[in-house]
Amino acid sequence: MILNLLHKEHTSNEDFSPRKTDKSKVPNEIGDLQLWNEFQIGNGKAYATIYEKNASALYNYGLKIVNNEALVKDCIQDLFVELWNNKEKLGKVKFIKSYLYTSIRRKLISELRKNRRNISIPEDNEAEDCLCSKSTERKLIEKQNFDNQKKLLNKAISKLTSKQREILYLKYNAQLSYNEITQIMALSKKGAYKLMDRAIKSLKKNF
Prior knowledge:
The protein has about 210 residues and is mainly α. It has helices at about 1-10, 30-40, 45-65, 70-85, 95-115, 135-160, 160-175, 180-185, 190-205. The chain is elongated and about 50 Å long.
């Protein structure tokens, strides 16, 4: 139940909504390595695809690190400007999402240290109503039950440490592998498993 509810979290922002790309120039099924290579040689469509596929997710992840929308937006824009300006100097990237998550995390934490801000995690937004039912009355009842469960889950999440919240987000919202998470959070694989185990146990205890 807890993991199912974690998957229900839904946030959106108009500034970072995915846009349609020119599929004739950059196919959707293109691999990360090839897409990155195209970007590095100056393919503007590849660069746009990288932005469109990741900006919204980076924004949502950024808000899990710092409760400051303006700062998150600025850092994302700065990150992509830096990527384009330094594209020829960058190394090969096999997994673009984890590379960008690592980069935005470092940038946000660096900005927080510069400005002496405290890292905080905002409360989750209301879950998207995706319950389907033949009966309107039943649908309302089911939604009310789900909302009640969501409130209980939010309360349990509020008792987690910031790192526990972050690893849950990366695993169940961003759907990253443990290998990718260890790189982003600078953890050993054993440390990541321990952190996740403690987070799940804490949720079960308080939910």
